[in-house]
């Protein structure tokens, strides 16, 4: 049985540029899949979509410190390099871009990207005000470094997807941003690297977030009272042991608040904490 070829690995800008020049021979198109590692089947679905959208696939693995607040889990965020490399080799990835923080943010680095629009919609930004500035800065750097034709982001981080799409368009970064559907466990829980933090009891309870959201979507589609339906969904999530940050129906493109369903594409978005693990999810209404 033929073993999968190990992807090339770049950890310096010179190696990255030299390897990309080789990949682009014969005018091959390039897709980038930005990740923070700890890869699961959701990430692999992004890689497979990237392979359908371009001739060559680059996966970045970089745990970005600027999107973590001091009290968040940067230090303990799962890092599983060997397992990640094996998974990417099995998928036929062409290059892994694995810079360290000193390369991405060298001494004297002072530039930050300020984002508004979907980044100030009052969802994740209300609870993590530092987050999207850090995301926008690192994604802009990754796009500038790799110069991909297309970059793939998962829809689980829906507000992030909208922020990155707007930024790439506004700054003429030359890469098309493509969203990939959420991958779920059999019980409905959205796949996330942070699911590793859940205790067995918390993991058993966690799918209640998705079930409650499905119930809200079903009721809204049936025309039930908007505010009452969201309140009932919030109660279900709380009764399952979650501390709810938000459960909101928003315009699917602008993320503007909605007061009723109908006449505009809509998305239900939620964030809630069980134990010490914060989970986010969303679904089309």
From TrEMBL:
It is found in: Cytoplasm. (R)-pantoate binds at residues 67, 160. The gene is panC. Beta-alanine binds at residue 67. The keyword Glycosyltransferase does not apply. Homodimer. Its EC number is 6.3.2.1. This is Pantothenate synthetase. One of its GO terms (biological process) is pantothenate biosynthetic process. Belongs to the pantothenate synthetase family. It comes from the Bacteria.
């Amino acid at each position: 049985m033929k073993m999968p070829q190990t992807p090339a690995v770049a950890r310096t800008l010179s190696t990255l540029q030299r390897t990309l020049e080789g990949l682009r021979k014969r005018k091959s198109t390039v897709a980038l899949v930005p990740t923070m590692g700890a890869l699961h089947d959701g990430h692999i679905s992004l890689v497979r979509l990237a392979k359908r959208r371009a001739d060559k696939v680059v996966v970045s693995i970089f745990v970005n410190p600027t999107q973590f607040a001091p009290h968040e889990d940067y230090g303990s965020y799962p890092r599983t390099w060997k397992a990640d490399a094996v998974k990417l080799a099995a998928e036929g990835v062409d290059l892994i871009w694995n810079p360290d923080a000193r390369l991405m943010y060298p001494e004297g680095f002072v530039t930050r990207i300020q984002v508004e629009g979907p980044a100030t919609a009052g969802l994740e930004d209300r609870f993590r005000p530092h987050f999207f500035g850090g995301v926008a800065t690192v994604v802009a750097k990754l796009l500038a470094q790799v110069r991909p034709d297309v970059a793939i982001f998962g829809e689980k981080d829906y507000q992030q997807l909208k922020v990155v799409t707007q930024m790439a368009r506004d700054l003429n970064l030359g890469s098309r941003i493509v969203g990939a559907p959420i991958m779920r466990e059999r019980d409905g829980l959205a796949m996330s690297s942070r699911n590793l933090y859940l205790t067995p009891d918390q993991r058993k309870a966690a799918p209640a977030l998705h079930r409650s959201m499905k119930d809200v979507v079903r009721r809204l589609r049936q025309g039930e009272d908007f505010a009452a339906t969201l309140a009932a969904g919030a109660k279900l999530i709380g009764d399952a042991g979650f501390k709810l940050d938000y459960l909101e129906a928003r315009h699917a493109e602008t993320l503007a608040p909605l007061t009723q369903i109908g006449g505009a594409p809509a998305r239900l978005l939620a964030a809630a904490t069980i134990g010490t693990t914060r989970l986010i999810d969303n679904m089309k209404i």
